[in-house]
Structure formats: structure tokens, C-alpha cells
């Protein structure tokens, strides 16, 4: 692993909807490459990449796991990501550091909601992707139907490079269709590949129209070119649990996914995509290098935090094993020890070579956590803080005066996992309240907020904000029209820093979003202005403005797809109406009833359980975050405010000034 930079590499993420066979595929890749001597299994809890107790008990992946194997002298860093929607934040962080991806689709279930969501994220980041249709040996497997599904829901550029030999219990492997003399099957043959690729390549199109035979090697070379650009997507078939299709998948990684670019000679540019605690080494940061290199005992700049720290050890983590490698260079992934202040998403060295982060995961529920006894609160706060370092979306809030702990979660499974983690890793028995929905607020109309904070002296900060509603999903857009000679640049940047903080709690106690805030007037005083005056004035000016505009309550929505046996269709529609859903006309697919629509999170928290009970376990609901939208007038949700309300200006000033004086 040492300093040999000539080794070809691939950094590949493996993604799928829950239960499509992702961890089993990873296990077989490791076994067939000779990296492990015996196959583990998800069901028996012996999979290499399921290293947490809870993953082995539940048979699901909760955290992304990095492993490395070598195939034909190419070193492949493989990141196995969770498939369950509750752990989407792990998927999001892994996406950022990949040069290529394998997206697994079940040959029985076809394209599911999580598959679609990950696909769109891979597309938005233009990550070259292999499509792997797994479970061809299961009852109900149908490669033709899945290919049509993929063409309809994901991409028309899925190019089958292998044709299935048999299906269900007769499935015996796959035939390469990109070699001379291969027969294949309609849709899974050389002609199908040519037809699709001719849409991207003019030369191929001309030959295709004129009926000129095109050699298979030329078709393969064309597909390689477009696959590495992320414009065409090779499709493979297999049955991972039997090891069928695995070697073909390894070949395809080398043939169709690009290697990393970047040079070890350039200045360092790297990103931290995962943080873990190690019993002996403390905090370990998983880092992907885009440029430069890191050696043991190097001092590296954390550009995000503005601190320099010394590297004590560089490890290659492989499932449950670790090896000290002492050096890591551009294009590779390793775990770095010694960076005590590092957080997920931090950039090391210069930021210009690091790609942007996708945003998929949005926690929609908040939940209060209780310790077993008052004496255990400090330990519980410390444990949850450590877990928040590993998953920043938990967004731990510790309200000391009220002795209240709150975290944000994606769903019920995540709560079970948190309970289990606190017990197994920290020895703490915590209790979680029922989760409640995270609402937001947005200004109801345009208006202005004004504050002249000039008493009690010494202080002087005058601000006027224009507040306008923004487009749905636009978040907060802030700008200033004030010249630096009216309000010094340092005071303006203090205001800009405090605006998002001040909007964490609106008139109803929820975060204020989808708005445009413009600073239109600002004034300081040469003698009386204290540097923190604008930190005090900003929340007062904004809250005064929101009191003028009023705010509208926004509720989170889910985009859902419900599939049930036809006999339950009528019941599902009446449930949807009761839950205030909006939905498209239902479709019949064979004997299955399929309906898609939008559901408020608040009315549907326990619906998956109810649907399963009603349909004898044969109903499937898949969901993804569908944005926020205004609540109906009869929905009221207010959250208790933390701290003093800036609308009560004199009390607020006293509270803050007391904090200033201490």
C-alpha cells in the first residue's frame, strides 16, 4: 500500500435501496478478489463491512464502510453505503468522494424510491455508474421488466453488456454481448447496445442507419468512452448470493469506471467524509485526497476550521482490520489520526479541487432524549455529542436551564439504532419521547425590520432590513446594499454571520426559511459602538420585521409511492384522503395497485405499520423528502422558545448584556 503511486486505482461507491443485496455483493467482491478467505453473511452478522454490533444484529448497514481489494493489479477502494432511507446522510457524504458508482437494482422489486433518489444524486454530480441487476435467481426475477423500469424511471442510456442465462431457479450466469459471435437476447444484445450508443455517437449512427456491421470491440470502446463521461451506463446481471456475475462486475469496474485524477506533487486538497472514534487512537478522520499527499507527522491545515494539526498515524481501514501505511497520496482514501478538531465535511489544505456536497438527507423529526437519572445527563450529553460528530444531522441541542436534550432524526429505525448504540457503546439507557414533526416558517408578505440599539450606553447599532418571501426551497438569501463608509465591513460581516442564527426561531419558534433578507440601512458610532452591538441588534431588527410581515407555518411533505394488491386499492385511497394527501390517478400493474402522491409527514408517521397490517405485509410504501409547503389554516404548531424573545427588547438586551459583562 506504501508509496507506490503507479498503482492504478478506482474509488467506487456501492449504492442500493434497502435489501437489494448491497452488502452481500461487497462480501463476494472481497472473496472473489482473494481479499478475504471465507464469505461472511449479512443474516448471520459476519459481513466484513457491517462492523457495528447493531448492524450485525439487525442485518442492515447503518454507517458507510470503506474496504479495499485488488483486482488485476488495480487497487479498488469500495465504500458500502446504507440502503435504508433513515441513514441517507451517510450515503450523501460517501457520494462526494467517489469517482464511480455501482447502483444495485433488485431483479424482483425493480426500481424503488431510494434507488431513484440515489440515481438523481449520482446524476447531479455526474458520477459514472454501473447498473447491476441482482437477485436474478429469486422467484419473480424478470430482467426485461427491470430494464423497462430503468428506462422509464432512471435513464434511456442503460446499455446491457451481459445477457442473463435463464432466470429464477434456472439462472446460471450471464453471457457477454460485447464480443464477436455473442447471441444475447432481444434488448440484451449487441444490436441493442449499438442502437442506444448511436444516439450519442455520430459515426456509429451513420453506420447503424446504413446497415454497416459494427465490430463488437468498436461498440465496447464507444461505450467505455461514454461510460467514463457518465453519459451511458453499462448494465450487468447477477445473483450475488451465489457468486454469479461477480467477476464480470469486477471487470466492468476496471473497463468502464474512471480512475482518479490528481497529482501527489500538488499542494494538498482533501475532504473529510466520515469521523469515527477509535479506542486507542481517539478521533479518526476518513479523508479522500484530490491533490497532494499526507505523511505521518505532517502538519496539515484544516481550511474549514482555520487550525493546523499534526498527523499521528495514517491507516488503511479494511472492514474490521486496520493497517498503518504512513503515507497517502492524491486519488486515494485513508483514515487519518491526530486531527482532534476535525468535523465531517471539513476541507484539508486548499478547497479548490474538492467537489461540492450533495444535499439529499433532511431530518423531518425532532425528539427529546431523557437520561435514566439526573446524574447520567453529563455522560449522555457527551455520548450524543460524539454521535453528532459522526453524523452532524443529529444536530444535538442541550438546553441547560431546562435540562432538555433534543436531536433530529430521519425516522423510527434511526431511533432504535440510537438507543442500541447508546447502550452497547456507552453503557447508557436513554429514553426517547415520541418524535414530533419539524415545521418551519416563512414570511407571509414583504416588510421591513428596524432597530436603533442606542441605549443603555455605551452602545450604538442601527439596522434596517428588507424582508421578502422567497421561492419554495430557496432557503435564506442574504445581501447588503449598505456602503462600507456607512457601516464598516467588519460590522457588516458580523450582521451577516448573525442573520442565520437569528432566524433559527421565528414567531412560532421554528426556523424561518424561504426568504430574502436585504440590509438596506446601517450605522455605527465612532466612540459608542461595541464590536458585539451588531450581534445584539441583528436578532431584534429581524424579529421586529417578522412581527410586521407575519409568518406562515410550513409543514414537511413526503413524495410517496404505494403498491398494494388490487383488493386493497379502495382502502388506500380513502386513507390518503384522510391524511390530506394529493395524488395522481392510480395505475394497475398486473394485479398490483400503484398510487403516487404527496403526504404530510405529520399525518403519516405510523402509516407504514398500518399499511403492512392492513395488507398482510404485502403493501409497500416507499417515500422520499418532498419539500415544505404551507400548512392548512386549521393546523397549529408552536414550539417553546429557547431563551429570551428579541421582540421583548428591554428584557432581551438585559439578558444579553449580562452575558456580555460576564
TrEMBL record:
The keyword Transport does not apply. The keyword Electron transport does not apply. Residues 7-261 form the Tr-type G domain. It comes from the Bacteria. It holds the Pfam family EF-G_D2. InterPro entries: EF-G-like_DII, EFG_II, EFG_III/V, EFG_V-like, G_TR_CS, P-loop_NTPase, Ribosomal_Su5_D2-typ_SF, Ribsml_uS5_D2-typ_fold_subgr. Gene3D superfamilies: 3.30.230.10, 3.30.70.240, Elongation Factor G (Translational Gtpase), domain 3 (3.30.70.870), P-loop containing nucleotide triphosphate hydrolases (3.40.50.300), Translation factors (2.40.30.10). Keywords: Antibiotic resistance, GTP-binding, Nucleotide-binding, Protein biosynthesis. NCBIfam families: small_GTP. Abolishes the inhibitory effect of tetracyclin on protein synthesis by a non-covalent modification of the ribosomes. This is TetM/TetW/TetO/TetS family tetracycline resistance ribosomal protection protein. It comes from Paenibacillus chondroitinus.
Amino acid at each position: 500500500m506504501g508509496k507506490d503511486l503507479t498503482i492504478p486505482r478506482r474509488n467506487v461507491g456501492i449504492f442500493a435501496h434497502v435489501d437489494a443485496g448491497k452488502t452481500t455483493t461487497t462480501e463476494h467482491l472481497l472473496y472473489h478478489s482473494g481479499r478475504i478467505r471465507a464469505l461472511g453473511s449479512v443474516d448471520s452478522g459476519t459481513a466484513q463491512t457491517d462492523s457495528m454490533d447493531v448492524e450485525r444484529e439487525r442485518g442492515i448497514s447503518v454507517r458507510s464502510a470503506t474496504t479495499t481489494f485488488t483486482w488485476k493489479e488495480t487497487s479498488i477502494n469500495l465504500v458500502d453505503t446504507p440502503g435504508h432511507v433513515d441513514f441517507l446522510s451517510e450515503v450523501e457524504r460517501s457520494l462526494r468522494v467517489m469517482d464511480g458508482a455501482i447502483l444495485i437494482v433488485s431483479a424482483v422489486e425493480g426500481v424503488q424510491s431510494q434507488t431513484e433518489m440515489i440515481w438523481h444524486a449520482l446524476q447531479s454530480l455526474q458520477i459514472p455508474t454501473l447498473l447491476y441487476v441482482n437477485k436474478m435467481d429469486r422467484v419473480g426475477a424478470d430482467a426485461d421488466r427491470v430494464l423497462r423500469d430503468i428506462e422509464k424511471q432512471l435513464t434511456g442510456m442503460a446499455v446491457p453488456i451481459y445477457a442473463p442465462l435463464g432466470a429464477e431457479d434456472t439462472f446460471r450466469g450471464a453471457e457477454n454481448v460485447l464480443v464477436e459471435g455473442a447471441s444475447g437476447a432481444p434488448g440484451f444484445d449487441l444490436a441493442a447496445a449499438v442502437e442506444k450508443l448511436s444516439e450519442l455517437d455520430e459515426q456509429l449512427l451513420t453506420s447503424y442507419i446504413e446497415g454497416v456491421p459494427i465490430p463488437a470491440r468498436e461498440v465496447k470502446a464507444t461505450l467505455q468512452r461514454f461510460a467514463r463521461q457518465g453519459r451511458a451506463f453499462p448494465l450487468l446481471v447477477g445473483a450475488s448470493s451465489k457468486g454469479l456475475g461477480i467477476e464480470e462486475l469486477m471487470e466492468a469496474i476496471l473497463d468502464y469506471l474512471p480512475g482518479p485524477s490528481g497529482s501527489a506533487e500538488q499542494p494538498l486538497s482533501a475532504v473529510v467524509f466520515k469521523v469515527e472514534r477509535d479506542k486507542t487512537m481517539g478521533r479518526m478522520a476518513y479523508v479522500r485526497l484530490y491533490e497532494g499527499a499526507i505523511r505521518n507527522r505532517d502538519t496539515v491545515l484544516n481550511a474549514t476550521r482555520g487550525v493546523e494539526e499534526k498527523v499521528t498515524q495514517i491507516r488503511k481501514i479494511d472492514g474490521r482490520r486496520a493497517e498503518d501505511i504512513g503515507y497517502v497520496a492524491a486519488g486515494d482514501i485513508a483514515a487519518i489520526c491526530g486531527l482532534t478538531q476535525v468535523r465531517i465535511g471539513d476541507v484539508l489544505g486548499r478547497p479548490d479541487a474538492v467537489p461540492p456536497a450533495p444535499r439529499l438527507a433532511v431530518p423531518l423529526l425532532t425528539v427529546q432524549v431523557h437520561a435514566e437519572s439526573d446524574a447520567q445527563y453529563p455522560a449522555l450529553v457527551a455520548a450524543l455529542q460524539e454521535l453528532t460528530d459522526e453524523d452532524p444531522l443529529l444536530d444535538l441541542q442541550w438546553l441547560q436551564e431546562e435540562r432538555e436534550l433534543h436531536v433530529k432524526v430521519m425516522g423510527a429505525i434511526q431511533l432504535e439504532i440510537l438507543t442500541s448504540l447508546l447502550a452497547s457503546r456507552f453503557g447508557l439507557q436513554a429514553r426517547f419521547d415520541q418524535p414530533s414533526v419539524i415545521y418551519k416558517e416563512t414570511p407571509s408578505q414583504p416588510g421591513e425590520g428596524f432597530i436603533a440599539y442606542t441605549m443603555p450606553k455605551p452602545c450604538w447599532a442601527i439596522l434596517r432590513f428588507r424582508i421578502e418571501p422567497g421561492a419554495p426551497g430557496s432557503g435564506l438569501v442574504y445581501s447588503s446594499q449598505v456602503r462600507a463608509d456607512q457601516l464598516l465591513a467588519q460590522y457588516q460581516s458580523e450582521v451577516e454571520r448573525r442573520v442565520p442564527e437569528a432566524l433559527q426561531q421565528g414567531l412560532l419558534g421554528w426556523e424561518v426559511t424561504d426568504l430574502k433578507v436585504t440590509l438596506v440601512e446601517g450605522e455605527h458610532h465612532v466612540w459608542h459602538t461595541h464590536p458585539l452591538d451588531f450581534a445584539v441588534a441583528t436578532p431584534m431588527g429581524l424579529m421586529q420585521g417578522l412581527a410586521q410581515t407575519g409568518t406562515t407555518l410550513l409543514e414537511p411533505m413526503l413524495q410517496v409511492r404505494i403498491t398494494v394488491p388490487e383488493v386493497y386499492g379502495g382502502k388506500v385511497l380513502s386513507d390518503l384522503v384522510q391524511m390530506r394527501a394529493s395524488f395522481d390517478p392510480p395505475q394497475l400493474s398486473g394485479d398490483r395497485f400503484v398510487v403516487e402522491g404527496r403526504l404530510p409527514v405529520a399525518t403519516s408517521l405510523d402509516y407504514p405499520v398500518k399499511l403492512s397490517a392492513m395488507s398482510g405485509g404485502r403493501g409497500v410504501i416507499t417515500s422520499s423528502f418532498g419539500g415544505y409547503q404551507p400548512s392548512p389554516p386549521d393546523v397549529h404548531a408552536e414550539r417553546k422558545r429557547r431563551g429570551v424573545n428579541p421582540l421583548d427588547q428591554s428584557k432581551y438586551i438585559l439578558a444579553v448584556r449580562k452575558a456580555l459583562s460576564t
